[in-house]
From TrEMBL:
Listed name of the protein: CYTH and CHAD domain-containing protein
Biased composition (Acidic residues): 215-240
PROSITE patterns, alphabetized: CHAD, CYTH
Residue ranges of every copy of the CHAD domain listed in the record: 292-593
Top-level taxonomic group: Bacteria
Gene3D superfamilies named in the record: CHAD domain, Hypothetical Protein Pfu-838710-001
Pfam families tied to this protein: CHAD, CYTH
Length: 602
């Protein structure tokens, strides 16, 4: 069973001659404990392509010291790192399945093997408060790190260094800063490496160096050679002929030849200068065009960003961080929207299937998230009701349903994220980013393409709003059937989804079209679509809350409780839905000018 530890520390590089200063004078520190020496040995595990290290995650098996065991360090957030610790067990060559479970979405199906070893001679001192509490630990580490061969025939690379770590125990950030200041004054430098492993694997993380290009040997002088660098061939002149007339004629001929040669050289230099100027202009134009972002680069960068967000949210779900399921769904929706909207840039024969799989993922997790939000809303709604309107154990029933939903929902979400289908989806997304299936418009300037795509998504939204307006007073299909949504309700649902696509499309386009403007036209569209989502999102939430009111009311009635309050809650949610619809139609005209800014006037 893993235990969790929150690590708040600072690292400092120091020279071999560094002397740890007396820290007893730091404000809040009453005394410094006696030094204790630990011999620590750690083996680090990762995939062959270092997926964990690239995600700022470290996995090690450590012996020695007070915290022997398997340590899984997760990415830092707000200056702190979460560390999951598990007992050593018998596994040595590979991490146990339970240890790898939280990072399954990162390693996927690639095996995790030994990539490095570290031996650390640690001299540890504690900073104590007046009541004996340990405020912080200061570790002076002499480290020998070995990067194990990445492939057969390669050699191990050994790195040695010395560093000082300051980790909070019962102290605060102010103490951490004060201790760090004392260390810096004494010659320490804030470390450039957040983790020891990053330093050891620096070469592999940086990738292979660029290939050296050899110039072909030739007999032509280099462009940078000056006239003085080029040795001219000696010129041997014929002797002048005998006779006064013949001599004068030959001298005149030679003068004319020299004059012609000088003119030819001058013309040649002029032509060369003109050619050089033309070549420079052509090179400058090529550089200018190369500096203009291409549509393919922008869209693939957006996909990579959302894939990183999906991986981060996946980790949240597996380590039971609140809001993780919601963040997985958001990243999935954004990925789907980018793939759908930017089909002129990415070959849809390759991406449509990925969109289908992302839709499956969202549907798998939708029940968990929707129920969580709805139950929380209903509990708040009940708490706001007059006491005389709450008949029976309504709050208790909602709380019980919420607790049951949390337990079942988390289990279902983790199960869904552990299926071969989901892991295959992750592999496909990574391959899509690494080798994107670029379509014809991918090579065009990004500004032209994203502007066209954004205009298209806005026009699509407007068309769906027109459809909803026409359907508002249409006769519902299947009247009398409780389970069937009317064409109007379905149309509003499509408007909400289209608004999300406009927003996500605009978020990709904004850096290109708005540049550095924080309040540009495209960001105005993003803000407008947030307003649309808020209003229609409230309406959509009531679809789930009303169904919960109905099922919980039936359960209460079946148990012999008074179900009247659940009927009241259902009516209040119906009223909320109607108000949300009115709010939308009141909001929509004000969004027109904002949308016109990127799509043109209607």
């Amino acid at each position: 069973m893993a235990t969790e530890h929150t690590e708040i520390e600072r690292k400092y590089d120091v020279e071999e001659t560094f002397v740890l200063p007396d820290l007893s004078g730091v404000p809040g520190v009453a005394s410094v404990g006696a030094p204790v020496v630990h011999e620590l040995a750690a083996t680090y595990f990762d995939t062959a392509d270092l997926r964990l290290a690239k995600a700022k995650i470290t996995l090690r098996r450590r012996t020695g010291g007070t915290d022997e065991g398997w340590h899984l360090k997760l990415p830092a957030a707000a200056g702190a790192r979460r560390e999951l610790q598990s007992p050593l067990g018998r596994a040595v060559k590979a991490p146990p399945r339970a240890v790898l479970a939280p990072v399954l979405g990162v390693v996927r199906r690639a095996p995790a093997a030994q990539v490095a070893t570290l031996h650390t001679r640690r001299t540890l001192v504690t900073l104590l408060a007046e009541d004996g509490r340990v405020l912080a630990e200061v570790a002076d580490d002499q480290v020998t790190g070995t990067a194990l061969p990445a492939a057969a025939g390669e050699a191990a690379v050994v790195t040695t260094w010395r560093e000082v770590e300051v980790e909070l125990v019962d102290g605060d950030e102010e103490l951490l800063g004060a201790v760090g200041a004392e260390l810096v004054v004494s010659g320490a430098r804030p470390s450039a490496s957040a983790a020891k492993l990053t330093r050891v694997l620096a070469d592999r993380l940086a990738g292979p160096p660029p290939a050296t290009v050899q110039d072909e040997a030739d007999d032509e002088p280099d462009e940078d050679d000056t006239e003085d660098d080029v040795v001219p061939e000696p010129v041997v002149e014929e002797p002048l002929p005998e006779g006064k007339k013949a001599r004068a004629k030959e001298i005149a001929r030679r003068a004319k030849a020299a004059e012609d040669a000088a003119a030819a050289v001058k013309a040649e230099k002029k032509a060369a200068k003109k050619a050089e100027k033309a070549a420079a202009a052509e090179a400058a134009e090529r550089a200018r065009l190369a500096a203009i972002p291409k549509a393919g680069e922008v869209v693939v960068a957006a996909l990579a960003e959302q894939l990183t967000a999906l991986q981060r949210a996946d980790l949240m779900v597996r380590t039971d961080v609140p809001d993780g399921v919601h963040q997985v769904r958001v990243a999935s929706r954004r990925l789907r929207s980018v793939l759908a909207a930017y089909r002129p840039v990415l070959d849809r024969t390759r991406t449509d299937a990925v969109r289908d799989e992302l839709q499956w993922l969202g549907q798998e997790l939708s029940g968990t998230r929707d129920a969580e939000v709805s139950l929380e809303h209903l509990r708040e709604l009940v708490a706001a009701q007059p006491v005389e309107f709450v008949l029976g154990p309504v709050a208790a029933r909602l709380q019980q349903a919420e607790l049951q939903g949390e337990t079942a929902g988390t289990g279902h979400a983790v199960a869904a994220l552990s299926t071969p289908r989901y892991l295959t989806l992750l592999d496909t997304l990574h391959a899509l980013v690494a080798q994107p299936p670029l379509a014809e418009r991918a090579a065009e300037p990004a500004a032209d393409v994203v502007a066209d795509v954004l205009r298209h998504t806005v026009k699509r939204l407007r068309k769906l709003v027109d459809t909803a307006e026409d359907a508002e007073f249409a006769e519902p299909e299947g009247a009398g059937s409780e389970a069937v949504e009317s064409p109007y309700e379905l149309a509003l649902h499509e408007v909400r989804k289209a608004g999300k696509r406009v927003r996500y499309t605009a978020e990709v386009a904004a850096p290109v079209l708005d540049g550095t403007k924080k309040n540009g036209a495209v960001m105005g569209v993003v803000d407008a679509m947030k307003q649309l989502q808020d209003v229609l999102g409230d309406r959509q939430d009531t679809v789930v809350t009303r169904e919960l009111c109905r099922t919980l009311g039936l359960a209460a009635f079946g148990a012999g409780d008074n179900a009247w309050t659940f009927g009241r809650l259902h009516a209040l949610e119906e009223a909320r839905a109607m108000q949300a619809e009115r709010d939308f139609w009141a909001l929509w005209p004000s969004l027109g000018p904002v949308l016109n800014g990127v799509a043109g006037e209607r």
